[in-house]
Design a protein that fits this description.
2 copies of one chain form a homodimer. The first copy, chain A, is of the alpha/beta class and 485 residues long. Chain A contains 14 helices and 16 strands. In chain A, the strands form 4 sheets. An 8-stranded mixed sheet of chain A has the order 4-11-10-9-8-5-6-7, sandwiched between helices. In chain A, strand 6 and strand 7 form a beta hairpin. At the A-B interface, helix 5, helix 6, helix 7, helix 8 and helix 10 of A face helix 5, helix 6, helix 7, helix 8 and helix 10 of B.
C-alpha cells in the first residue's frame, strides 16, 4: 500500500449531518466512482492514509471500505492494494470522451501545405538540439531571473546578431519574447502605441496583432524597393511604424540606404518608434544583407527577431532589441504580466546558440533553400501571363497573374494544395495588378514540393511557353521580372 | 578553411561607386573590425566563400585580403584560417560591455526572501524531470499543434485534475497557457470582459493584469469564508469575476457550498463569467478540498490553473479549463496572437505529469509544507497583540498586529528580510484592523526559514507571552485565531 499516492479525494464529511461518518465516506466513494473520478481497477487510498486525510479514526474508514467490499464497489486482492472493482460497467471506467470538436480538431489540413512562413524542420531535433535541452534540464530552476530574460540567452542573442547580422548591441537592450508576435505585443504594451503604420502590402499576422489590440492601423505605401519614405505622413504621424527593411514582405525589396536614413530622420523628428521586423534575415543566401536599421539608431528603433524561421515555430521563442528609452517600460510590463518563456527553454536556446548548433543548422538550411529557390524558378518558368518572384533569400515566392485570384487558389485547394492569397497581404484594397498567391517552399518535403510545383504549373496554364515574360533560372538572384531592385 | 561558417558579413558593394571592388571589401572589413563586429583573433571567411557570397571573382577577394595582411589587420598562420590580427587593440576585441544598469540588474535582492508565491524548488530538477525533457527534446518539432495546445499535455492536465482535484473535464475544454496571469489575459481577450469583479482583499498580481488591460476593477467584499455572495451586485453586474473558492487569498477561507451555489446562480442569471483561480489547490495538506466550482458548471466557470506553485515558476506553464462557450473565442485569440508555450515544454510537462513525476513531487512538497506550517505556528506563538494565520494548506501565512504596518516591514527589510504588505492586498482602503504582512514559507531553505522566523519574532515583540491570543500549534488546522472557518 506504500505506493498509493497521497490522498486528494474530494470527500467532504459533515459531522453535523444525519448520516454516520462511515456511511458518508462510502457514499462519497460510490459517487466518485459513478461520476468517473475514481476509475474501475484503480487502487483506493490505504485506510490509514484516508483516515489521516479526513481526520477520522482508521476504524471509521475500515467500516466504510468493508461496506463497499460487500457491495462489490471495491475488491481486495491478496498482495495488492484495495481497488475499485475492475468489473464495474465500462461506462464508469472510460476516461472523458473527446467530443466531435475534439482536442485535435481537424482544421481542414491540406495534403500539401505551401502556405508561407514555415521552415524545414526535419533536421532540427538532432544531437546538438538534444544536448542543449539536456544541459538545460539539469540546471537548477529556483534561480532569480531578470525581467527581460535569462542573461545567458540574452548574451547568446547578442553574439548571434553579431555573427549573422553584423549587429553589435548591448545585452541589456535585449528582451526575451515568445516570438515575433509576442514581441510586437510587448512593444505596443510598453510604448503605449495605439496608432501604428504598417507597410502595404505586409505581414497579415502582425496586422492581426494590431487588430487584437484595437490599434489604429495606417497603411504606408511601398514600391519594389520597400517603404516609400517620401510618402510618410508629416502631419499627425503614427506613434509607431512596423517595417521590413531587409526584404519587404512579401515582394522582397530591400530598403536602400537613402530611404533608411530618411525613415530614421523622420522618426526622430516626430518621435515615432520604428519596429524593424527582421524576419528571415539570417537565412539570406543570395545577396549581401544590409545592416539592421537598429544598428543605425539605438534610440528610435526596436528590432524584432524570432527563432521561428531559423529553427522552428515550435520553440515559441524570439527576442527584441529595445531602444534604450523603452527598457524600463518593458521591464514593468514583464513584471506585471510575466515572462512567457520557460527558464528551461531559455537555457536550451542559449546553449544551442552558444554551441554553434544554430549556426550550423542555418548554414544547412541556406543550402537547402538556395536549391529550392532555383527549383521553384525552373519549375514555373515560361508560363504565359504569369510572373514568379521568388524572394531574394527568403522562404517564399509570389506568383502573379491576370486571372481571378480566388478561382486559382480554389482550384489549387481542390487538388489538396494550400497557398496564401496575395490580396490578403494588403490592408487596403490591392491594386488591380496585384492578383496572385504567395507560397512557401520551406516547410514541406522534397517530394511534396515537386508535386506542389507541378500542380501549380498545370493549374496556371499547361504547356511551357517561350513567349511572355519568362522568369529564367539563369537570371541573377533578386532580379526576378517584377523586382527591378 | 572548411569549418569557417557560411559568410554573413554585412558588406555592401557598390559597383557604380568610385572605389575598386577590392578596396571596398578591404574598407568594409576594416570598418567591421573597428566597430567590433569582427573580433581580434576571429577567422575571416575563405576567399572562395566570400567571393561566392559577394558575387565577385575569387581574385578580387584575394587582392583585398592581401592588402589587409600587408596592413596588419589580418594574419595568416600556416595550417589555420586567415584571421583578424589577435594583436589588435583590446578596445576592438572586447565584446559589448554590459552597462551599469546591466543584464542582471540587481533588483534589491533581499538576503532572505519570504515574499509569498514561491514554492520550494530544490528538488524539482531530479531524475523524472530530466527524463521528461529528454523525451521531449527527442521528439520531432515539425508537427501541427492545435491552437489550444498539444493534445498530450491537455490529456495529462485532465488526468492531473481528476486525480488531484477530483474534477472530470473534457480535454477539448483545456487550453495550455504560460501560467496564471497569461491565462487570465487570454480569458479577458477571448471574453472581451472589461469590467471585472475581484475579491477584496485578493491577489495583487491578478489585479495588475487587469490594470494593464485597462479593465474596470470592482471590489467584491469577502469575509472569513471568502466571497460574500449576498453582496454581489444585482444591477449593472460586472462582465466577469475572479474568485478563489478553494481558499480565499490571502486569508484562506473556503467558500461554503451554499455560497458556491449562490455565486453560480447569480452568474447564470446575469451572464457573468466566473474565473476560478485554483491556486495551490493541489498542495492542500491539512483538510479536505471542496470540489472545484468549475466541476459544478461547465458553461459559466473557467478554471485557472498553473504549475508555478506545484512545481516551479521557471516553467511558465499553466492551463485554463474553459467554459464551453469560450472555446472557439480562445482558439481565435491563439490563432492571432500565437501559443506562447514551446512544444518542447508542453511535451516535457505532459511527460512529467504522465510519468507520475509531478504527483510524487507534490506528495513530497505536501510533507515539507505541512512541517513548515507547524514550524511557523510554533515559532510565532504567544506574541502579545499579534495574530498569525497560516493558510490551511497553502504556502504562506498572514501576520496581523496593531502597529504601523510600514514601520514593521521596513524594520524587517533593514534586517535583510522581505515580506509582502497586507495592505497591498486590498484594492480599496483596507479596514483599520487589517494591518500586517504576508509571508511565504515555501521558497527558502530550512535554515533561512528558521532565521527569518526568529527575526520576525524578535521584531514583533521579544519575549513569548501567555496572554493575548496565542496561535497555538495544537489547534486544529485551519482554525487559526482569526479564521473561524
Amino acid at each position: 500500500m506504500r505506493q498509493v499516492p497521497e490522498v486528494a479525494l474530494p470527500i467532504v464529511l459533515d459531522r453535523t449531518a444525519g448520516g454516520s461518518l462511515p456511511n458518508q465516506i462510502a457514499e462519497s466513494i460510490r459517487h466518485l466512482t459513478a461520476s468517473g473520478v475514481l476509475r474501475a481497477g484503480e487502487p483506493v487510498p490505504s485506510s490509514r492514509a484516508l483516515a489521516r486525510h479526513l481526520g477520522v479514526s482508521r476504524g471509521t474508514v475500515i467500516v466504510a471500505y468493508d461496506q463497499l467490499l460487500a457491495e462489490g464497489w471495491l475488491v481486495a486482492i491478496a498482495g495488492s492494494a484495495t481497488s475499485i472493482n475492475p468489473q464495474l460497467p465500462r461506462a464508469w471506467a472510460a476516461p472523458p470522451a473527446v467530443s466531435a470538436r475534439g482536442a485535435s480538431r481537424p482544421q481542414e489540413v491540406p495534403r500539401i501545405d505551401l502556405r508561407p512562413g514555415r521552415p524545414l524542420q526535419d533536421e532540427v531535433a538532432g544531437p546538438s538540439w538534444r544536448a542543449a535541452w539536456r544541459v538545460a534540464a539539469a540546471a537548477p530552476v529556483g534561480v532569480s531571473v531578470p525581467l527581460l530574460g535569462w542573461p545567458g540567452l540574452r548574451a547568446a542573442v547578442v553574439e548571434h546578431l553579431r555573427r549573422l547580422r553584423g549587429f553589435n548591441c548591448e545585452p541589456d537592450r535585449v528582451a526575451v519574447t515568445a516570438g515575433g508576435r509576442e514581441g510586437l505585443s510587448l512593444l505596443l504594451h510598453a510604448s503605449g502605441a495605439k496608432d501604428v503604420g504598417v507597410e502595404d502590402p505586409g505581414f497579415p499576422s502582425l496586422r492581426r496583432v494590431l487588430h487584437r489590440r484595437n490599434a489604429i492601423i495606417r497603411s504606408l505605401p511601398t514600391d519594389d524597393q520597400g517603404l516609400v519614405t517620401t510618402k510618410l505622413p508629416e502631419t499627425e504621424p503614427p506613434e509607431a511604424v512596423i517595417v521590413t527593411p531587409a526584404h519587404q514582405y512579401p515582394f522582397g525589396g530591400t530598403l536602400h540606404i537613402d530611404r533608411r536614413l530618411a525613415l530614421l530622420e523622420w522618426a526622430r523628428r516626430h518621435g515615432v518608434l520604428v519596429i524593424e521586423d527582421d524576419y528571415d534575415s539570417e537565412l539570406r543566401y543570395a545577396s549581401e544583407p544590409l545592416p539592421a536599421l537598429a544598428s543605425l539608431d539605438a534610440d528610435q528603433v526596436a528590432l524584432l527577431g524570432t527563432f521561428s524561421k531559423t529553427l522552428t515555430p515550435a520553440l515559441a521563442t524570439g527576442f527584441v532589441v529595445l531602444p534604450r528609452h523603452l527598457v524600463a517600460a518593458v521591464e514593468a510590463v514583464r513584471g506585471d504580466l510575466g515572462q512567457p518563456v520557460s527558464l528551461v527553454t531559455q537555457r536550451a536556446v542559449a546553449e544551442y546558440l552558444a554551441s554553434g548548433g544554430l549556426a550550423r543548422h542555418t548554414q544547412r538550411m541556406r543550402r537547402v533553400y538556395r536549391r529550392r529557390r532555383n527549383q521553384v524558378v525552373a519549375a514555373l518558368a515560361g508560363l504565359t501571363g504569369v510572373r514568379v518572384s521568388p524572394m531574394d533569400g527568403g522562404l517564399h515566392a509570389v506568383v502573379q497573374f491576370d486571372r481571378d485570384e480566388r478561382s486559382v487558389i480554389d482550384a489549387l485547394r481542390m487538388q489538396g494544395l494550400a497557398v496564401a492569397s496575395l490580396g490578403e497581404y494588403w490592408a487596403s484594397e490591392p491594386p488591380g495588378s496585384q492578383r496572385g498567391f504567395v507560397f512557401g517552399f520551406g516547410g514541406v518535403s522534397d517530394a511534396d514540393l515537386a508535386e506542389g510545383l507541378a500542380t501549380i504549373r498545370a493549374t496556371l496554364g499547361g504547356r511551357p511557353s517561350t513567349i511572355g515574360r519568362p522568369a529564367s533560372p539563369h537570371r541573377a538572384p533578386g532580379a526576378a521580372p517584377d523586382q527591378p531592385s
